[in-house]
Amino acid sequence: MPLLIAFLSGLLMSAGIIVSQMVNPEKVLAFLNVTDNWDPSLLLVMAAALCVYTIGYQLTLRRQNPCYAASFNLPAKGKVDLSLVLGAALFGTGWGLSGYCPGPAIIALSSGSIATLGFCAAMITGWFISRRINMI
Amino acid sequence: MENFTPISAIIGGGLIGLGALLLLAGSGRIAGISGITAGALFSKNDKSWRLAFVAGLLVAPFLFRLFIADFSFPVPELSWQLLLAGLLVGLGTGWGNGCTSGHGICGVSRCSVRSVIATLVFMLTGLLTASIMH
After folding, report:
1. B-contacting residues of A 109-128, CB under 8 Å?
2. pTM as predicted
3. Nearest-angstrom CA–CA distance, B46 and B44
Protein backbone atom coordinates (compact mmCIF):
# COMPACT_ATOMS: atom_id res chain seq x y z
CA MET A 1 0.00 0.00 0.00
CA PRO A 2 2.72 2.62 0.78
CA LEU A 3 4.15 2.04 -2.70
CA LEU A 4 0.77 2.60 -4.34
CA ILE A 5 0.20 5.75 -2.26
CA ALA A 6 3.59 7.13 -3.27
CA PHE A 7 3.03 6.26 -6.94
CA LEU A 8 -0.43 7.90 -7.00
CA SER A 9 0.89 10.95 -5.16
CA GLY A 10 3.62 11.41 -7.79
CA LEU A 11 1.06 10.82 -10.53
CA LEU A 12 -1.35 13.47 -9.20
CA MET A 13 1.35 16.07 -8.60
CA SER A 14 2.71 15.45 -12.08
CA ALA A 15 -0.78 15.81 -13.60
CA GLY A 16 -1.19 19.12 -11.73
CA ILE A 17 2.14 20.40 -13.06
CA ILE A 18 1.07 19.43 -16.59
CA VAL A 19 -2.45 20.95 -16.35
CA SER A 20 -1.13 24.20 -14.87
CA GLN A 21 1.49 24.32 -17.69
CA MET A 22 4.30 24.68 -15.17
CA VAL A 23 6.06 21.93 -17.14
CA ASN A 24 6.66 24.69 -19.73
CA PRO A 25 9.70 26.73 -18.63
CA GLU A 26 8.62 29.68 -20.80
CA LYS A 27 5.40 29.89 -18.77
CA VAL A 28 7.39 29.88 -15.51
CA LEU A 29 9.80 32.52 -16.84
CA ALA A 30 6.83 34.68 -17.89
CA PHE A 31 5.98 34.79 -14.17
CA LEU A 32 9.52 35.22 -12.86
CA ASN A 33 10.39 37.93 -15.39
CA VAL A 34 8.33 40.86 -14.15
CA THR A 35 9.72 43.34 -16.67
CA ASP A 36 7.87 42.16 -19.76
CA ASN A 37 4.26 41.01 -20.31
CA TRP A 38 3.92 39.55 -16.80
CA ASP A 39 1.95 36.30 -16.41
CA PRO A 40 0.73 35.78 -12.80
CA SER A 41 -0.45 32.16 -13.43
CA LEU A 42 2.24 30.56 -11.22
CA LEU A 43 1.03 32.62 -8.28
CA LEU A 44 -2.46 31.11 -8.65
CA VAL A 45 -1.00 27.59 -8.95
CA MET A 46 0.81 28.12 -5.65
CA ALA A 47 -2.27 29.68 -4.03
CA ALA A 48 -4.57 26.81 -5.08
CA ALA A 49 -2.08 24.17 -3.93
CA LEU A 50 -1.58 26.01 -0.62
CA CYS A 51 -5.35 26.21 0.00
CA VAL A 52 -5.88 22.48 -0.59
CA TYR A 53 -2.83 21.42 1.43
CA THR A 54 -3.38 23.81 4.36
CA ILE A 55 -6.97 22.64 4.90
CA GLY A 56 -6.05 19.00 4.30
CA TYR A 57 -3.06 19.22 6.65
CA GLN A 58 -5.24 20.46 9.52
CA LEU A 59 -7.82 17.72 8.93
CA THR A 60 -5.18 14.99 8.55
CA LEU A 61 -3.30 15.87 11.72
CA ARG A 62 -6.46 15.31 13.76
CA ARG A 63 -5.75 11.63 13.23
CA GLN A 64 -3.28 9.87 15.50
CA ASN A 65 -1.54 8.20 12.58
CA PRO A 66 -1.54 8.28 8.78
CA CYS A 67 -3.83 5.72 7.10
CA TYR A 68 -1.10 3.33 5.95
CA ALA A 69 1.94 4.05 8.14
CA ALA A 70 2.80 3.67 11.82
CA SER A 71 3.34 7.38 12.43
CA PHE A 72 3.74 10.78 10.82
CA ASN A 73 7.26 11.43 9.62
CA LEU A 74 7.46 15.23 9.48
CA PRO A 75 10.54 17.47 9.53
CA ALA A 76 11.25 18.91 12.99
CA LYS A 77 10.98 22.65 13.36
CA GLY A 78 14.61 23.65 12.96
CA LYS A 79 16.53 26.89 12.94
CA VAL A 80 16.98 29.14 9.94
CA ASP A 81 20.67 28.76 9.08
CA LEU A 82 23.06 29.94 6.40
CA SER A 83 22.85 26.65 4.51
CA LEU A 84 19.07 27.07 4.14
CA VAL A 85 19.23 30.69 3.00
CA LEU A 86 22.20 30.37 0.63
CA GLY A 87 20.86 27.06 -0.70
CA ALA A 88 17.49 28.69 -1.46
CA ALA A 89 19.31 31.60 -3.14
CA LEU A 90 21.32 29.23 -5.37
CA PHE A 91 18.14 27.33 -6.23
CA GLY A 92 16.29 30.56 -7.07
CA THR A 93 19.15 31.67 -9.32
CA GLY A 94 19.10 28.36 -11.25
CA TRP A 95 15.31 28.50 -11.43
CA GLY A 96 15.36 32.06 -12.80
CA LEU A 97 18.05 31.15 -15.35
CA SER A 98 16.20 28.12 -16.73
CA GLY A 99 12.53 28.22 -15.71
CA TYR A 100 12.96 24.68 -14.37
CA CYS A 101 12.53 23.58 -10.77
CA PRO A 102 13.00 19.86 -9.97
CA GLY A 103 9.42 18.59 -10.55
CA PRO A 104 8.79 20.15 -13.96
CA ALA A 105 12.31 19.23 -15.16
CA ILE A 106 11.76 15.55 -14.28
CA ILE A 107 8.30 15.52 -15.86
CA ALA A 108 9.59 17.27 -19.02
CA LEU A 109 11.96 14.32 -19.56
CA SER A 110 8.95 12.69 -21.30
CA SER A 111 9.57 15.05 -24.22
CA GLY A 112 12.82 13.23 -25.02
CA SER A 113 14.65 16.57 -25.09
CA ILE A 114 18.43 16.27 -24.79
CA ALA A 115 18.55 19.73 -23.18
CA THR A 116 16.12 18.68 -20.43
CA LEU A 117 18.09 15.47 -19.92
CA GLY A 118 21.26 17.58 -19.57
CA PHE A 119 19.55 19.83 -17.04
CA CYS A 120 18.44 16.81 -14.98
CA ALA A 121 21.90 15.25 -15.13
CA ALA A 122 23.43 18.51 -13.86
CA MET A 123 20.75 18.73 -11.13
CA ILE A 124 21.44 15.16 -9.99
CA THR A 125 25.17 15.97 -9.92
CA GLY A 126 24.30 18.93 -7.69
CA TRP A 127 22.31 16.67 -5.33
CA PHE A 128 25.21 14.23 -5.21
CA ILE A 129 27.71 16.97 -4.34
CA SER A 130 25.40 18.53 -1.73
CA ARG A 131 25.22 15.17 0.05
CA ARG A 132 29.01 14.79 0.09
CA ILE A 133 30.08 18.33 0.96
CA ASN A 134 28.45 20.56 3.55
CA MET A 135 27.89 24.07 2.35
CA ILE A 136 29.34 25.74 5.43
CA MET B 1 -1.25 39.83 -19.00
CA GLU B 2 -2.75 38.23 -22.15
CA ASN B 3 -0.98 34.94 -21.33
CA PHE B 4 -2.67 34.64 -17.92
CA THR B 5 -4.42 31.23 -17.60
CA PRO B 6 -6.31 31.37 -14.27
CA ILE B 7 -8.58 28.32 -14.73
CA SER B 8 -5.86 25.80 -15.61
CA ALA B 9 -3.64 27.34 -12.92
CA ILE B 10 -6.27 26.78 -10.22
CA ILE B 11 -7.18 23.24 -11.38
CA GLY B 12 -3.49 22.28 -11.73
CA GLY B 13 -2.56 23.83 -8.40
CA GLY B 14 -5.45 21.97 -6.74
CA LEU B 15 -4.19 18.67 -8.19
CA ILE B 16 -0.66 19.38 -6.92
CA GLY B 17 -2.09 20.06 -3.45
CA LEU B 18 -4.18 16.86 -3.55
CA GLY B 19 -1.20 14.75 -4.64
CA ALA B 20 0.93 16.13 -1.81
CA LEU B 21 -1.93 15.61 0.63
CA LEU B 22 -2.32 11.97 -0.39
CA LEU B 23 1.28 11.26 0.64
CA LEU B 24 0.70 13.00 3.97
CA ALA B 25 -2.59 11.27 4.79
CA GLY B 26 -1.50 7.87 3.46
CA SER B 27 2.14 7.64 4.48
CA GLY B 28 2.65 10.59 6.83
CA ARG B 29 5.35 12.12 4.67
CA ILE B 30 6.12 15.50 3.11
CA ALA B 31 5.90 15.52 -0.70
CA GLY B 32 9.13 17.34 -1.50
CA ILE B 33 10.06 16.38 -5.06
CA SER B 34 13.77 17.28 -4.79
CA GLY B 35 14.32 15.42 -1.50
CA ILE B 36 12.35 12.33 -2.56
CA THR B 37 14.10 12.07 -5.94
CA ALA B 38 17.58 12.64 -4.49
CA GLY B 39 16.74 10.05 -1.81
CA ALA B 40 15.53 7.57 -4.44
CA LEU B 41 18.92 7.89 -6.14
CA PHE B 42 21.35 8.24 -3.26
CA SER B 43 19.89 7.17 0.05
CA LYS B 44 20.68 3.70 1.37
CA ASN B 45 17.33 2.84 2.91
CA ASP B 46 13.68 3.68 2.31
CA LYS B 47 14.32 3.63 -1.41
CA SER B 48 11.25 1.76 -2.67
CA TRP B 49 8.49 4.26 -1.88
CA ARG B 50 10.67 7.09 -3.19
CA LEU B 51 11.21 5.22 -6.45
CA ALA B 52 7.45 4.62 -6.70
CA PHE B 53 6.84 8.36 -6.27
CA VAL B 54 9.35 9.26 -8.99
CA ALA B 55 7.81 6.59 -11.26
CA GLY B 56 4.44 8.36 -10.79
CA LEU B 57 6.00 11.68 -11.82
CA LEU B 58 7.59 10.13 -14.92
CA VAL B 59 4.60 8.03 -16.05
CA ALA B 60 1.95 10.76 -15.68
CA PRO B 61 2.67 12.59 -18.96
CA PHE B 62 2.29 9.35 -20.93
CA LEU B 63 -0.97 8.37 -19.16
CA PHE B 64 -2.23 11.94 -19.57
CA ARG B 65 -1.68 11.79 -23.35
CA LEU B 66 -3.28 8.36 -23.55
CA PHE B 67 -6.41 8.93 -21.48
CA ILE B 68 -7.05 12.66 -21.10
CA ALA B 69 -5.67 14.89 -23.83
CA ASP B 70 -2.73 15.23 -26.13
CA PHE B 71 -0.43 18.07 -25.20
CA SER B 72 3.02 19.38 -25.94
CA PHE B 73 5.22 21.99 -24.39
CA PRO B 74 8.35 23.87 -25.44
CA VAL B 75 11.73 22.69 -24.18
CA PRO B 76 14.87 24.83 -23.84
CA GLU B 77 17.94 24.67 -26.06
CA LEU B 78 20.97 22.89 -24.70
CA SER B 79 23.49 25.46 -23.46
CA TRP B 80 26.15 25.94 -20.79
CA GLN B 81 23.77 28.31 -19.07
CA LEU B 82 21.11 25.57 -18.85
CA LEU B 83 23.60 23.06 -17.41
CA LEU B 84 24.83 25.64 -14.89
CA ALA B 85 21.20 26.28 -13.93
CA GLY B 86 20.67 22.54 -13.38
CA LEU B 87 23.75 22.33 -11.17
CA LEU B 88 22.58 25.36 -9.14
CA VAL B 89 19.09 23.88 -8.73
CA GLY B 90 20.60 20.58 -7.52
CA LEU B 91 23.11 22.17 -5.13
CA GLY B 92 20.61 24.75 -3.87
CA THR B 93 17.73 22.34 -3.21
CA GLY B 94 20.22 19.88 -1.65
CA TRP B 95 21.82 22.37 0.75
CA GLY B 96 18.54 24.26 1.29
CA ASN B 97 16.65 20.99 1.92
CA GLY B 98 13.77 21.54 -0.45
CA CYS B 99 12.26 23.08 -3.54
CA THR B 100 9.00 24.60 -4.73
CA SER B 101 6.95 21.60 -3.55
CA GLY B 102 8.54 20.73 -0.20
CA HIS B 103 9.20 24.28 1.05
CA GLY B 104 6.84 26.30 -1.16
CA ILE B 105 3.69 24.21 -0.77
CA CYS B 106 4.02 21.70 2.11
CA GLY B 107 6.28 23.77 4.36
CA VAL B 108 4.48 27.08 3.94
CA SER B 109 1.11 25.34 4.58
CA ARG B 110 2.54 23.95 7.84
CA CYS B 111 3.72 27.46 8.79
CA SER B 112 7.32 26.20 9.03
CA VAL B 113 9.54 29.26 9.53
CA ARG B 114 12.40 27.59 7.63
CA SER B 115 10.15 26.93 4.64
CA VAL B 116 8.64 30.43 4.62
CA ILE B 117 12.14 31.97 4.62
CA ALA B 118 13.40 29.55 1.94
CA THR B 119 10.35 30.25 -0.26
CA LEU B 120 10.78 34.03 0.03
CA VAL B 121 14.48 33.70 -0.83
CA PHE B 122 14.07 31.45 -3.89
CA MET B 123 11.10 33.46 -5.18
CA LEU B 124 13.02 36.72 -4.86
CA THR B 125 16.28 35.41 -6.37
CA GLY B 126 14.25 33.69 -9.13
CA LEU B 127 12.42 36.93 -9.96
CA LEU B 128 15.64 38.94 -9.95
CA THR B 129 17.59 36.45 -12.07
CA ALA B 130 14.82 36.01 -14.65
CA SER B 131 14.09 39.73 -14.84
CA ILE B 132 17.76 40.58 -15.41
CA MET B 133 18.72 37.66 -17.68
CA HIS B 134 15.68 37.30 -19.96
Report:
1. 109-111, 113-116, 118-128
2. 0.97
3. 7
